[in-house]
Amino acid sequence: MSYKGIAKQLLDNYNVDVGSYIILHSSQGPYEGIVMPRTELGDDIHVVMKLINGYNVGIRIDGSETIEPLKGAKDVGVYKSKTAVFDDSKPTFSILHTGGTIASRVDYKTGGVVPAFTPEEILELFPELERVGNFRAYLVSNMFSEDIEYEHIVNLGKGIQDELGNGTKGVVITHGTDTMHISSAALSFVAQNLPIPAIFVGSQRSSDRGSSDAKMNLMCAAHFATNADFAGVGLCMHESMSDDACLIHEGTKVKKMHTSRRDSFRSVNQHPVARAWPDGRAEFIRDDYNRRDESREPKFYFNFEKKVALVKTYSGFHPEILRFLTEKNYRGIVLEGTGLGHVPVNALDEHTQVHAEIIKALADFIDNGGVVVMCSASLFGRISMNVYSTGRYLQAIGVIPGADMLSEVATVKLKWVLGQTKDREEANRMMVTNYAGEIAERTQSDFFYPQFP
Amino acid sequence: MIDYHDIEFRGGLELHQQINTRKLFCECPTEVRHDEHHVTTKRKLHAVASELGEYDPAALHEAHRDRTFHYQSYRDTVCLVEIDEEPPHPVNRNALKVVAQVAMVLNARMVDEIQVMRKTVIDGSNTAGFQRTMLVATDGKIATAEGDVTLQYFCLEEDAARIIETEGRNVNFRLDRLGIPLLEIVTGPNFKSPAQAGEGADRLGHIIRSLNVRRGIGSIRQDVNVSTKYGTRIEIKGVQRHRMIPTIMAYEAQRQVSLYNIARELRDRREPFDESFLKQCTHVLTDEFRNSESRVIRSVIDKGGKVIAVALPAFRGFIGRELCPGKRLGTELKDQVLTLGIEGLLHSDEDLSAYGFSAKEVDSIRSILQCGDNDGFIVFASREQVVQKALDKLYTRIVACFDGVPKESRRALKDGNTQYMRPLPGEARMYPETDIPPVVMNEELKERIEKSIPEILETKLERLSEKSSIPLHELWKIEEYIEAFLYGVDTLGMDPAFVYRVIGSNVVDMRRQTGKDFDNGTLKNLLEALHTKNVLVEAVPEVLTGLAAGEKLDDIITSINGEKVNLETAINNVIESQNGILQNPKRHAILMGELMRTLRGRIDGRTISDALEKALKNIDQ
């Protein structure tokens, strides 16, 4: 229950636990209410109580307090669950849960957030899911999105494999939003040639509040995954700040572009695939997407290389980090360079002598068998390393231009590529080959601050 | 006359006062605007399980209405926090200071560690689906003539969005008001009479208004609650003028007694019935009324609506009975269906011919419904889609007549009456706001706040009354201008009697005549101008007229002083225009009158009089 020190001692002395109904007599007077959990990082001199009026307050403890236990401890955090009924006339879809706020609820006993992962629990949170069809739900991992590792993506791939065997019409993957676009890109390489949709969905406002975007996002994702004529990895989130429609973004062409807005996910260097509504309607924005084809044989790739780094360069960048990666025998680097694909490599005066070491460090990394791919901090647009001498110089030592890939996408791709081949030339070739929509050949004029139809 | 002791009257107050700082959880100004908004954001709200895993009945009531909320905002004065697109910033310390100050003045016990809570509100008035609120202090006290009253809670919370209009299932809110810090004071149910509650509200108001709070319409709102031994605890929301508190409480007490009496008398007449019984008493009379003279009914039928009549066995005489002034049992029934857009609910205890019903029609209703001598009925016309909802609500309310006072939240009306609003909210509707760190109220912080408490209005006025020998009750009348008053007296050192004349009579008169109010800042500037003789006291009415018309003080003064007058020329002109005046023994008075007519406010009277006398003397010589 996270109580520590003097506060814990007081509660222990009276054998009082979180949820107990008590009167706490402090030097300021008595407080009547229920003992509530203390957050992990809270100090050790306050006991939190829910008073009869519903407010929580922290009461300072100095050791002189007494506790009078009362009868009628409230059993906090008992949820009713709804029974899911399997209806053979309806399509069946799957929910793979990885954590995040979308299908979580507050555990009032611990104060923490716990996932709802059985169909019954999910149905209790989102009863409207029944309208889409039957569903099976699995907990693949339970963590904040920033804690997700490539291994978890592999597990997701295996989960999809299993569900395809069970005849699912579509897969919905609930995920924390911070790195959802990285996971969607990674899964795009792990699970290729999918016959059905696998749609990532998250929420920016947790589902324990009335204004949550979880329900609408989930309904859009579930309908789209189950019914849309689409196949492959997508990501479904709000189109605007309003609860109007969601966009289905291509899994490799999307980025979280805002820390908090509902519409923080934007397609970069590509248009979203479709627009979806919570009542099941959908409209395609592009026509160059993969259609649903349940006879198509999917390809799964579960190998990957962990020793790949994403390195951001900038004015004042120093070569030590590159030397460190060579020393540690890293196999790949994605450089997030500036503009068309540049890093400081020119020694022009006494202040820039160190730049010569940068180019040397890169050359050493490549000579050691490593792969270096260039992406841009500009986000929008395409790498072109032929315009300036810097770019030409970098290409000459073996840096690969990363086309119009987002640097995070290139990073997960390089992990995947190096998991498939140890040959540097082959890896270089694969990095510039489009496998999952990560490279668009054309840069449309309306990709930048896009105005889609 | 009700004996409040006898009926075990218990009254309580909840005061909400806007605090005059930036918003509680962001840096936006607390500006309520009336120009065209810039952005609209559309949202739905969902019912969520409470902390104890239960759904709140009030929340469900709202959720079932499946409404879409349209939030209007301004780019420059509303940010992502109000639109629920950015987490809240930490608690505004200046706002918290005001609540702590009030609590300290009223000897309350401060909370050691203040925790921000989320209070579920899904009527759309909060974009988040909850209102953030925190308990700052408990157990204060305020003295009244009838004894001390406990002030249970002192809270700091965010104000809700302003409702602009409702069109069916679409509700438009404006976010300018959302997030304005609100001081909330909740008294115990300790008021033993409406009069005592009035006194308590007055005294609390005086203390609150001594601090950094917003003034003007809408800046303070009160909820009251009333219980009597004949009823239950009834919450009444949204009392705009605190002077109405005693009336509202008295009416509610009377309403409870009346409903209790009706229940008793009803039971004398017959056994209570239930909803399913009432279903049997319900008839669709659309065909019978197709050619009715009644416009209320016909207009609904013409649009494809239905006419419904329900027999109310044993209810004759009760439906029309007055519960409290201006409120009959029939009105209570009407209130139930108002939100469904049903306006003409009529009943057998009123003169139905006034609504265009013929005697024959009334007889035919009675016979179709098989009404006996003791039986009454209601009849209404409604859109087909809401008929069932309306009937459900009416059945529940009618059946409740056998039990007296139903538990509910009510809305305050301007005339002191109240109206059904929604079922009482459940208890479990608060859970922790995890996005905002708690605030520890340590000794050092408490000390700093205590030192910052300004002089309280009551003390201030007593001091002023003593100093100026203006009676205290006179000063209370200009309480809202006291800031300007004190500026004139304390800061500028002006004569209190003089300042009182300007504010207590000129300003108050002008406000009465024009209905326009004046703010303290402008009045301070006016006093300054009077003090430096930039404006003369005779010109005050003219200045105030200009201000009331929306002109700027500086412009008015410039325009008055701009017409520079040569006094000598003016005197000569007047003497010349009045033939034979020099021989008139009353010449000074007559000429003076003429001069004052044109020069009042521009040159002071004494100067004119002196110059005139000198001029006359010169002529005589």
Structural commentary:
- The complex is a heterodimer of chains A (453) and B (621).
- In chain A, 24% of the residues lie in helices and 23% in strands.
- Chain A has 453 residues and is of the alpha/beta class.
- Chain A is globular and about 80 Å long.
- The two termini of chain A are 52 Å apart.
- The model of chain A has no long low-confidence stretch (mean pLDDT 91).
- Helices cover 38% and strands 20% of the residues of chain B.
- In chain B, strands 1, 4, 6, 7, 8, 11, 12, 13, 20, 21 and 22 form an eleven-stranded mixed beta sheet that branches.
- Chain B is globular.
- The model of chain B has no long low-confidence stretch (mean pLDDT 88).
- Classes of the chains: A alpha/beta (453), B alpha+beta (621).
- Chains A and B meet through β3 and β4 of A and β2, β5, β6, β7 and β8 of B.
- β4 of chain A pairs antiparallel with β5 (113-114) of chain B.
Distance between the termini of chain A: 52 Å
Total number of strands of chain A: 23
Q: Which pair of chains has the greatest number of interface residues, and how are they split between the two chains? A: A-B, 45 and 53 residues
How much β-strand is present in the residues of chain B?
Answer: 15-25%
Radius of gyration of chain B: 32 Å
Output the structural class of chain A: alpha/beta
Number of H/I helices of chain B: 20
